[in-house]
Amino acid sequence: METPTWPRVPCPEAAVARMLLLGWVLLQVAGASGTTEVVVAYNLTWKSTNFKTILEWEPKPINHVYTVQISPRLGNWKSKCFYTTDTECDLTDEIVNDVNQTYEARVLSYPADATDYSGEPPFTNSPEFTPYTETKLGLPTIQSFKQVGTKLNVTIQDARTLVRRNGTFLSLRDVFGKNLSYTLYYWKASSTGKKTAKTNTNEFLIDVDEGESYCFSVQAVIPSRKSNQKSPESSIECTHHKKEILLGIVIVVLVAVILTSILSVTLYKCRKGRAQQSGKESSPLNAA
Ligand SMILES: *[C@@H]1O[C@H](CO)[C@@H](O)[C@H](O)[C@H]1NC(C)=O
Ligand SMILES: *[C@@H]1O[C@H](CO)[C@@H](O)[C@H](O)[C@H]1NC(C)=O
Ligand SMILES: *[C@@H]1O[C@H](CO)[C@@H](O)[C@H](O)[C@H]1NC(C)=O
Ligand SMILES: *[C@@H]1O[C@H](CO)[C@@H](O)[C@H](O)[C@H]1NC(C)=O
Ligand SMILES: *[C@@H]1O[C@H](CO)[C@@H](O)[C@H](O)[C@H]1NC(C)=O
């Protein structure tokens, strides 16, 4: 019995089929090596202050793009920042839904020219992130202050966050309640010895020496936290009290007096000069 083999029976269909098969195999190999060339993200880092939350990573993409996914611990992945060439993604909108959740994110890498990519892209997981305990406290702002007699009243602005409840944005105080406190550092303008005061509201009312000027700055603190407990210190403000106010008035009056006398002397000289000049100018006319 004769068994026909490939070379002896020239069959054009078989040859075409073989070529197609070879081509397909080559494409698969090329595709696979293309995928392994896609660079995965590393150094995924959460940057979060007063709940404004951005995930950052490296490296800058060359021939690929990234998509970010985020999920609460027992939830579904949600994609953000689709096919981006950035190395950061703002995830604030996702985490403000529930700031007490623990979230995980991952960064997927795709080849730049394959937006209809169907395979499983390589990805890197982020560290876990719990906004309520991990978001950093932003720089506080002194809203107003007033020194009357022996009392200094300092009010701190209640920063607005992007956390919403019932359709309205919550302030930092709304979110943290009595867990949030403020420290006031204050000192006499004439010395450097600092004192501190604490409050779990947004207002300080402290005893001071009458007639003295004070300088101060504030810091937000969440004592129950283990890390990221404190905000940076606010800019320094100073009160200007009696002695300084009197000195200020004296200086202003002196400056005004000096300026006025300089001005009148200059004006006088100027007028005199002009009178002389016009006298000279008129002489040729007179001569003509
Ligand atoms: C990751 O980031 C840290 C600081 O942000 C840097 O010191 C470190 O070198 C980075 N790692 C790599 C592999 O680039
Ligand atoms: C988050 O949890 C803390 C206690 O763990 C609670 O006091 C606070 O109200 C919660 N905040 C929100 C927005 O659910
Ligand atoms: C302190 O100042 C704030 C803002 O001006 C004011 O609302 C508050 O009543 C003052 N507190 C006291 C105890 O005077
Ligand atoms: C939201 O609003 C509803 C009614 O408008 C109210 O009953 C509920 O207590 C509010 N929830 C919060 C958390 O403030
Ligand atoms: C304060 O924070 C601690 C720890 O995060 C939490 O157990 C407590 O319920 C919080 N209290 C309030 C009033 O938010």
TrEMBL record:
GO cellular component annotations of the record: plasma membrane
Alphabetical GO biological process terms: blood coagulation
Residue ranges of the TM segments: 245-268
Membrane topology: Single-pass type I membrane protein
Keywords: Blood coagulation, Disulfide bond, Glycoprotein, Hemostasis, Lipoprotein, Membrane, Palmitate, Signal, Transmembrane, Transmembrane helix
PROSITE patterns per UniProt: TISSUE_FACTOR
Source superkingdom: Eukaryota
Primary location: membrane
Xref: InterPro entries: FN3_dom, FN3_sf, Ig-like_fold, Interferon/interleukin_rcp_dom, Tissue_factor, Tissue_Factor_CS, Type-II_Cytokine-TF_Rcpt
Keyword flag Transport: no
Subcellular location: Membrane
Disulfide bonds: C81-C89, C215-C238
Limits of the Fibronectin type-III domain: 18-114
Gene Ontology molecular function: any one: cytokine receptor activity
Residue positions bearing lipid (S-palmitoyl cysteine): C270
Interferon/interleukin receptor domain residues: 135-241
Pfam families: Interfer-bind, Tissue_fac
Quaternary context: Interacts with HSPE; the interaction, inhibited by heparin, promotes the generation of activated factor X and activates coagulation in the presence of activated factor VII.
Family to which the UniProt record says this protein belongs: Belongs to the tissue factor family.
Function: Initiates blood coagulation by forming a complex with circulating factor VII or VIIa. The [TF:VIIa] complex activates factors IX or X by specific limited proteolysis. TF plays a role in normal hemostasis by initiating the cell-surface assembly and propagation of the coagulation protease cascade.
Descriptive protein name: Tissue factor
Species this chain originates from: Odobenus rosmarus divergens
